Amino acid sequence: MARVTVEDCIDKVDNRFELVLLASHRARLISQGASITIDRDNDKNPVVALREIADETLSPGDLKEDLIHSLQKHVEVDEPEPSAESLIATEASTEFADASVSDDEPEPLTFDRMSEEELLAGIEGLVAPEKSDDY
Q1: How many Å apart are CA 31 and CA 45, to the nearest integer?
Q2: How far is CA 80 from each of CA 1, 58, 91, rounded to the nearest angstrom?
Q3: Which of 3, 5, 6 has its CA nearest to residue 18?
Q4: Whole-angstrom distance, CA of residue 41 vs CA of residue 59
Q5: Among positive and negative, which fits the CA dihedral 36, 34, 44, 54?
Q6: CA max distance for the chain
Q7: In whole angstroms, what is the distance from residue 74 CA to residue 47 CA?
Q8: Which residues, in sequence order, are CB contacts of 50 under 8 Å at separation 6+?
Q9: Is residue 51 within 8 Å of residue 43, measured between CB atoms?
Q10: d(CA 10, CA 12)
Q11: Most CB within 10 Å of its CB: which of 42, 75, 77, 114?
């Protein structure tokens, strides 16, 4: 069995820290049930991940994108741009809609203002919730 060293992988991934991140992410994926691309040879998941990177059976760029995607909490979806025909139809429908609306200025937004005394009076009027034995 040949041992995998960092030198085998460092020419695939330039930064050693990034190599550790990618290999650990891949090892976690393997432990979650992802299929491996090489023979296991009784190796543990981190060694299998390093061997996959060294043998270039997985692209480091793809691993990096997968790692970034797994860490994102909000993923933006790229929607296709509308075609020229749909843009023309949208413009035509908005022109007809604009013609039916009067040319009055929109009403300015107003916010309710509350003085400090009114706020304190409102807070004093609040009743604390009753305690129950459930907690």
Answers
A1: 7
A2: 49, 29, 18
A3: 6
A4: 21
A5: positive
A6: 81
A7: 32
A8: 4, 8, 9, 23
A9: yes
A10: 5
A11: 114
- Written as one letter, the residue type at 83 is S
**30 contacts 48 by C-beta, under 8 angstroms:** yes
Among 71, 24, 78, CA closest to 52: 24
pLDDT tens-place string over residues 63-101: 999 998 888 887 677 777 767 666 666 666 655 555 555
Q: How far is CA 77 from CA 64, 65, 71, 80, 88, in A?
A: 19, 15, 16, 10, 24
How would you label 97-123 residue by residue, b for 16+ Cβ within 10 Å and e otherwise?
A: eeeeeeeeeeeeeeeeeeeeeeeeeee
DSSP code of 52?
A: H
C-alpha span between 125 and 130 (Å, rounded): 15
Amino acid at 101: V
Tens digits of residue pLDDT in 33-56:
999 999 888 889 999 999 999 998
